[in-house]
Prior knowledge:
The chain is mostly beta strands and about 300 residues long.
Amino acid sequence: MKKSAIIVFLLLLISSFNIWSQDHVTIYQDCQYGGRSHALKAGNYLDRDLGIGNDVISAIRIPKGWRVTVYTDNNFKGVSRTFDEDVVCIAADLNDKISSIRVAHKSNHSNSSAGSRTQMITLYEDCNFRGTSHSLRPGNYVDNQLGIGNDRLSSIRIPSGMRVTLYTDNNFKGSSRTFDENVVCMPADLNDKISSIRVTQKNNHNSSSNRSGNKMITLYVDCDYRGSSHKLGPGTYIDSQLGIGNDRLSSLRIPSGMRITLYTDNNKRGERITLDKSHSCLPHEFNDRVSSVHIERY
């Protein structure tokens, strides 16, 4: 009996080792890891590369340290979802509907990030940092690059020193908002409505500004310097460049030696007012009515 127990233990140990040391993920035709299967190493796969056919995937085995992003259309388009653990049975909106896949090794990605000291923000499909997630380095991302799908973002983890600008339309258009701290649950006007994102590092930007002596004006969505905020240096900015969205400005922090002219219409049109001091709450005729601004030093 003792010898048998030892043999069973060794078999389990070997099986466990094989699972953790795998250098690929495995896709299956049926739920519960049944039907035809095919192993995929790190890389990008179109419909013809999946090995078990197009629109037939129902389950995926994903070893620890690996990440899989699936797409309903070929060429990494359509609805997408990212997984980093086994999927026994894919949700109905994706089951038998997957046409392209990206496979990546999280460990290598993390080591690379650590070596370059680059932090990453993490997008989540649900509020409270739940559901499918995907991490992004500094850069610009359109709808099919978000990793959790288009119009699915509900919460974000944003490390200190990072800034995220969200856009409701693709290619950095539509309403926009900038965040520099965690968002537990997106405001209703943005929840499940994000199609493109810009990710930047505040520290690098701020240190560059400090070295060059450039001061910046800070725009806030709410009075008393609260809510989403965005910093702007000298220049002219239209509605899509304000960083907090159109018709959302309520308060301003203005450093000495700087002035800003606010316009109620885009392209420096409509009613206007010039300010050279911080305002904890804009006059009612400009509060939530600013569509373009001009900033200068004096």
